[in-house]
Specification:
Helix content is 74%, strand content 0%. By secondary structure, it is an all-alpha fold.
């Protein structure tokens, strides 16, 4: 039946105007794809090209006189690996902590018979709309004595109100009959949450986890505010310092006698190495990205 329908569809001839629209669509989408791909190819090519070719501006979309000395310099002579480690720890631990807090908050608030439910929801809405400011937030972190620690990069952001409301709205849409059946069988609220609600909510939980991970990974401003030593700087701070402290970079290259390494090549290599974790993770979260746009937007 499907083969027959496909044959009928193929026999339907497109009109001239429809063909023109299809061609224009393909050309336009191809142009957009090139706009996204060519800059990446340019940066990758610079990271593997010789210093002379990069300095002379000869590198476009293919490496000239390929070499790996620039990558070796970034990995061995800069704190890139330490910064990457810090970002991975903050992102991994922060995402897990944020998900536990978000689920633990959203589940009771999704129950209409929860005592004080409206008061808690109002408190979250008020705190989401009215923020105390950067200075009070910094004073709280400093008073806790967690400046220049992983706690300073995780605890102030362990829950995002919007994400919590998205999860709460999704929980409210789950059928109550399933939970009631589990309670009749003697399951506790924690067992219902872990064994029934969470497995049924995998799409929204995966989407919110991705949002938390991206937030932790891209966090630059607070990382500069709450960290003071180079050993605690995250990858985003390291990239910023590398791009802006070119004079220090020149001195290090001269002292280390790296004749085949250029400043632009080092910056390109840092950017390329920084993209690897995101590129490796993208295939696993791609299917949740579009689905996550509409999750939780029906109920208020």
């Amino acid at each position: 039946m499907r083969k027959r329908e496909k044959e009928i569809t193929n026999k339907i001839a497109l009109s001239t105007s429809e063909k023109v629209i299809v061609v224009i669509s393909y050309v336009f989408m191809g142009f957009l794809a090139l706009c996204a791909i060519l800059p990446v190819l340019h940066v990758v090519s610079k990271s593997f090209s010789s210093a002379a070719a990069v300095t002379a501006g000869q590198v476009l979309f293919w490496p000239i006189k390929p070499q790996f000395e620039t990558m070796q310099y970034v990995l061995e002579e800069t704190p890139f690996l330490n910064s990457l480690k810090n970002s991975l720890i903050v992102t991994g631990v922060g995402t897990v902590v944020s998900m536990l807090v978000t689920i633990g908050t959203a589940y009771p608030l999704s129950k209409p018979n929860f005592k004080g439910r409206k008061i808690f929801i109002l408190a979250y809405i008020v705190s989401m709309v009215f923020f105390g400011g950067i200075v009070p937030a910094y004073m709280v972190v400093r008073s806790l004595g967690i400046i220049d620690t992983y706690f300073a990069l995780i605890l102030p952001f362990f829950i995002v109100h919007f994400n919590m409301f998205v999860v709460k709205n999704y929980f409210e849409g789950l059928p109550e009959s399933v939970e009631e059946s589990a309670r009749i069988d003697g399951a506790s609220d924690l067992r219902i949450l872990v064994s029934i609600v969470c497995p049924m909510s995998k799409p929204v939980l995966a989407t919110v986890a991705m949002l938390y991970a991206v937030n932790y990974w891209n966090n630059y401003f607070h990382a500069t505010m709450y960290t003071t030593s180079t050993t605690m700087q995250t990858l985003q701070v390291f990239i910023y310092n590398t791009i802006n402290n070119t004079q220090t970079l020149v001195e290090r290259l001269v002292i280390g006698h790296y004749t085949n390494v250029s400043i632009d090549g080092v910056i390109a290599a840092v950017v390329v190495l920084s993209m690897i974790p995101i590129v490796a993770l993208y295939p696993f979260v791609q299917r949740y990205m579009i689905h996550g746009i509409t999750i939780g937007s029906v109920k208020g």
